[in-house]
Each structure stands twice: as structure tokens, then as C-alpha cells.
Task: structure prediction
Amino acid sequence: VQLQASGGGLVQAGGSLRLSCAASGGTFSDLTVGWFRQRPGKLREFVATIKWDGGTTYLADSAKGRFNIVRDNAKNVVYLEMNSLKPADTAVYYCAAKQFGSIYDWREMQFWGKGTLVTVSS
Result:
């Protein structure tokens, strides 16, 4: 499975961005997909997951109320919709996946894509 994150860019604080994670080389509807980020000087951290069947999602406390994760199995894409962005959200965002994973399996992702940079200016 190959994953490709895109949609990053420069946005002002309070603005919105939608990141996309496109998958190829596998059965997309079998994949639980997650978003992670690595802020400057920090370790990579969990942001959100969406279950392979699209039925449930799990968001980190930092994402609740501002971010939303959705999937379109017809297009083999998972989106991370980010609103009310803050400078502290500046990071490289990665998507990852696990076949038939639980939304809580974010520590056990099998497949990783290259990241996309999000910069939030104050």
C-alpha cells in the first residue's frame, strides 16, 4: 500500500485547510487510516483515525472541536479537515494506515506516506 499526503501550505491563524491522503496498491476499504503530525523540535504525535468501515473516528484532544476526519472509499481518499488553525498546528502532517485496524491502533500503523507541510502564521 502506498499513501500520499497532500494539501499542506501556508495559512493564517484562524484559517482552514483540508489535507488529503490518497492510497493505492491495496484495498482501500480495508484500511483504517490515521493522521499524525511532527511539529518543529517535537516527536511525531497522533492526530486522528478513521476506521476502515468509516463508521467511527478518534481524535486527539488537540484536534477535537477543530479537526474532522472523513473518508471517501469511492475515491480512495481520507481527508483531514482543519479549522480554526493555530500557529501551534504548524507541522509536517503524515497519513498512515493499518489493515482492518481499530481506531485505537494508531501506534501500530503498517503503512506510512510522506508528509505534507502545514504552516500557520500568526
Summary: The chain is about 0% helix and 50% strand. The chain has a mean pLDDT of 95. The CA atoms of residues 32 and 52 lie 4 Å apart. The two ends are 37 Å apart (CA to CA).
